[in-house]
Amino acid sequence: MITPKAKPKIILDTDPGGDDSFALLWLLSLVKQGFTELVAVTTVDGNVHARYTFAGASKLLKLAGFPSIEVGKGVIGGSESDLEDAGGIHGADGMGNLSHTLPEIDVSYEDAAYSDDILIEKLQANPGEVVVIAIAPLTNLASAEKKCPGILKNAKEIIIMGGAFKVPGNIRPEAEFNIAYDVEAAATVFASRDDIVVIPLDVTKQLIFTNEMAKQVSQINPESGISKFIVSLCEFMTKTALAFRETQGKQGFLVHDAATLAYLFYPETLLFRRADVMIETKGEWTRGKTLFDRRNKTKFGANAWVAMEVDSVNLLAVMIEDLKVLISLDLDPRLLEEVGDLGSSLL
């Protein structure tokens, strides 16, 4: 008799962010479908200031019907680097300047717990049970590790969107934003355990979500608030992606962060290699670079599994279908009944 596996419990560490927003909505669809449990969302300073990432995540949770999920406010640290945030790409609010169209929230940034404290609390209470998905600078995770040494080993897994190995960086010639924004934090996290899962630009640069895909999702219920947000955010992100030459002229934008969910729920879409990932923390031109030894020589020790290949067609296809489910569950119950009756009449 096969024993059913327990639903993974997840903490999402994020800095919404256009692609973060799509990743969070995809995750909430998986929660609504009963495939996983979202324990908390820990926001961080990154794409925009921590105050805005906290508000953005809180608004998305309320939009999708999860206002009770705890949201932490980010530890300020990475912003002390010499890098600017990514507001020029994601909008001043991190969400395509669309946050004013989302529901007002009842939670206060000032009263919220800090994200590192939430990480420590949840990982201590559930050792070996919680998967931490980090799709932002690693400031929160590093702060938790410094406050409570060894706490990151309590996570069942740590999945990181970050790094660039065989491809150029996106914030510096050799560095990816999430790593470069707080390189000391990244180094701390990668030193914390030997089985970190890394989803780098090498695969995420192949994940172009188009306006046509957004419209395909929204057709389930064009009047849904989630539908309208997805279409409008995709249109905004497409314009900035084209302006920053990110998609080789294709009409869409890169949903980097979403690939972390594929690892957990659609692992057949990714191919990994084992490696000892190193973070360059001192280089004048290469600060924030991620690298591993590619020479044909005996290697001892490794700290990560790094995604190097992706089935982008099928990854985007399953993402689209799950987003459709999220929107269909946002339908008025009477409309759902009508849709069901229509389906029965066609059989």
From TrEMBL:
Domain of life: Bacteria
Sorted UniProt keywords: Glycosidase, Hydrolase
SUPFAM superfamilies, per database record: Nucleoside hydrolase
A GO term for molecular function: hydrolase activity
InterPro entries xrefs: Inosine/uridine_hydrolase_dom (IPR001910), IUNH (IPR023186), Ribo_hydro-like (IPR036452)
Presence of keyword Hydrolase: yes
Inosine/uridine-preferring nucleoside hydrolase domain: residues covered: 10-313
Hydrolase as UniProt keyword: yes
Record-given protein name: Nucleoside hydrolase
Source organism: Floridaenema flaviceps BLCC-F50
